[in-house]
Backbone:
């Protein structure tokens, strides 16, 4: 039997460090494992469903597409594991403190800054949320790292800068990004106000399809779930990957994004890419 | 269930509230709950993001409370796991024999998180590096730093015959060249010494800085009245290069500090005694104070080394012999330097003056030899062997 091959999207050079380190750890424990890098999530998902790779370290949006694509092929995708930090994220809608807007619906007719076209947290989820609140807005999108599904924080930072500069009426940000931008000074303390919070929802997961060899997949999950933050060899890798522990995957945290992808016509029910201006 | 409560007042997580949260959570056990109150805008939003990143869990307050908190933080165990396997890098006042590489750049005595880089500091043996006197010598060195601009009477008027001035220029040119080598040798070892031996690193760092100042003041004295420097001989440079090339710490320290700088202390004392002007006298005296300290450390750590490993004396002996063989066919001391020393000590050109100057330089060479023998004996060489080895020392003095 060949190794279990996992796909990962190289949104940052640290991806190589992380998975090279993990690969060594898996192989030392008897799991034949290798990984391949993708420049964007769409090709990774297509290769996963086609069986070219047996696991994919997926963004939440990539999970949505993988699930739909697999289903369309008569297969079943499932989230094998996820990071503890992938659970219960929220998106905030932020205005300047002097804004008249008190709630998301007040942004009707206003201009709203978002992250990249394919960012779940800073574009798809908030835009669907605003539509649900009855706010029709003009979108000012900051397309940084298209194809990386919002893994690149720069689009959100540009959106926050546009808000601070008075170029837009509101910005859509991940809760943690809002805190980061305040701490680093991109947003001035007291200069912005949160008028809406959407979520919670889940973020990345390790997606597998039922065509993958069960024994390898089970061992893979067992090794990931067994990683301990107290292990000095693993801890730097876990820190780099931004987690404390791997948790069992769950499908319950993706409803918000599934609905947003439908509402905004980003993906079709069979995993087709529908968004006309999306060029990963 | 009783919950601890923390009131953050108006302080938000964007302005330091995490310090209060950490301080309050630290003594709690994993799973314990902390109710958090506060008025900062977006506190609930930021608490969620912060808890996720820190490995804690956030819960909404139980319904029906009269004064509900903003949220409840359930303490995680991430920090405990991080420090579970941490160890102390020794104790601040206790130097261990072989510090492990993973202590790396951590301060001696710090609590070191496991993992991280294991830098290669190949000089990591207390017997090789340490001298009990090192901390005191460092303190002395730090206290005795001087400012070349202020410590020397550069503008004090003096009259020196032209040819004696030329002799001073030649000697200063030679001294500067020697100090270049004396700077490079410790500098090359600095990055190889395990930082656990902090005082040794500090002492050698000051030694490097000492030599930098010596180069400055010798050059400045040479150019005080002349536009050009003196000569640099091939033999002199060959002798110095044999020092710079030595990659073994014990051998380099032996050749440089015990033999070379030791001889230089006598040379600087000679210059101070016979200097024809106050500037030369002062630069010689200042440099001599520093060089004495360099010699003291060299002798002290090699004496400790030889005590722990008597065989090191065989290697020291071989190093002198090897250098002697390598330099056998070179001229050694620049002839112009030797003649300049004679003239400088003579003070003039009359046969009587030259005879006196020559005798003084001979006396200097005898003093240097005596000093080397004394230091070799301190390292445990028998007197007859010390005498033989001293005679093999380079004619270039350094």
Residues:
């Amino acid at each position: 039997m060949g190794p279990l091959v996992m796909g990962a999207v190289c949104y940052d050079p640290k991806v190589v460090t992380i998975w090279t380190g993990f690969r060594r750890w898996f192989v030392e424990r008897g799991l034949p494992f290798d990984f391949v890098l993708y420049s964007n999530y769409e090709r990774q998902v297509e290769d996963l469903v086609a069986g070219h790779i047996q696991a994919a370290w997926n963004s939440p949006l990539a999970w949505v597409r993988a699930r739909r694509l697999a289903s369309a092929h008569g297969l079943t995708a499932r989230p094998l594991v996820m990071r503890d930090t992938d659970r219960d994220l929220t998106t905030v809608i932020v205005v300047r403190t002097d804004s008249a807007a008190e709630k998301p619906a007040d942004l009707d007719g206003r201009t709203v800054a978002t992250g990249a076209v394919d960012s779940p947290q800073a574009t798809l989820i908030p835009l669907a949320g605003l539509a649900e609140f009855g706010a029709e807005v003009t979108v000012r999108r900051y397309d940084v790292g298209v194809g990386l599904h919002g893994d690149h924080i720069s689009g959100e930072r540009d959106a926050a800068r546009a808000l601070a500069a008075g170029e837009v009426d509101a910005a859509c940000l991940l809760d943690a990004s809002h805190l980061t931008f305040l701490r680093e000074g991109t947003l001035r303390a007291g200069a912005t106000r949160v008028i809406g919070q959407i979520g919670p929802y889940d973020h990345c997961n390790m997606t597998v399809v039922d065509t993958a060899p069960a024994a390898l997949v089970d061992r893979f999950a067992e090794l990931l779930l067994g990683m301990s933050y107290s292990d000095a060899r693993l801890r730097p890798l876990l820190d780099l990957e931004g987690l404390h522990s791997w948790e069992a995957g769950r499908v319950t945290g993706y409803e918000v994004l599934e609905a947003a992808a439908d509402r905004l016509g980003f993906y079709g029910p069979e995993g087709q890419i529908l968004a006309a201006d999306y060029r990963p | 269930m009783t919950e601890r409560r923390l009131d953050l007042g108006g302080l938000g997580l964007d302005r330091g509230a995490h310090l209060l949260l950490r301080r309050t959570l630290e003594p709690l056990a994993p799973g314990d709950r902390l109710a958090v109150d506060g008025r900062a805008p977006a506190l609930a939003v930021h608490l969620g993001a912060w808890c996720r990143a820190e490995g804690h869990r956030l819960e909404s307050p139980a319904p029906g409370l009269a004064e509900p908190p903003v949220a409840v933080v359930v303490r995680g165990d991430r920090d405990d796991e991080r420090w579970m396997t941490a160890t102390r890098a020794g104790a601040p006042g206790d130097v261990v024999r072989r510090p492990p590489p993973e202590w790396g750049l951590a301060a001696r005595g710090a609590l070191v998180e496991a993992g991280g880089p294991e830098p290669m500091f190949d000089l990591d043996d207390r017997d090789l590096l340490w001298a009990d006197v090192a901390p005191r010598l460092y303190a002395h060195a730090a206290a005795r730093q001087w400012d070349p601009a202020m410590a020397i009477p550069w503008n004090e008027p003096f009259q020196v015959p032209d040819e004696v001035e030329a002799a001073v220029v030649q000697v200063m040119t030679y001294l500067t060249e020697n100090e270049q080598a004396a700077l490079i040798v410790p500098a090359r070892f600095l990055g190889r010494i395990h930082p656990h031996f902090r005082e040794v690193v500090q002492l050698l760092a000051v030694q490097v800085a000492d030599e930098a100042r010596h180069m400055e003041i010798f050059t400045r004295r040479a150019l005080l009245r002349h536009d050009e420097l003196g000569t640099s001989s091939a033999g002199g440079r060959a002798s110095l290069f044999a020092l710079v090339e030595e990659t073994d710490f014990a051998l380099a320290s032996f050749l440089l500090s015990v033999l070379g700088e030791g001889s230089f202390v006598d040379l600087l004392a000679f210059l101070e005694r016979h200097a024809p002007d106050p500037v030369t006298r002062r630069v010689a005296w200042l440099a001599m104070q520093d060089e004495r300290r360099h010699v003291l450390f060299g002798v002290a750590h090699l004496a400790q080394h030889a005590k722990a490993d008597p065989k090191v004396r065989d290697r020291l002996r071989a190093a002198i012999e090897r250098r002697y063989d390598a330099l056998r066919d070179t001229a050694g001391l620049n002839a112009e330097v030797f003649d300049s020393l004679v003239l400088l000590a003579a003070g003039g050109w009359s046969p009587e003056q030259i005879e006196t100057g020559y005798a003084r330089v001979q006396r200097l060479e005898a003093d240097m030899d005596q000093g080397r023998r004394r230091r070799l004996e301190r390292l445990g060489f028998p007197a007859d062997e010390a005498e033989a080895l001293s005679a093999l020392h380079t004619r270039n003095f350094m």
In short: Chain A has a mean pLDDT of 97.
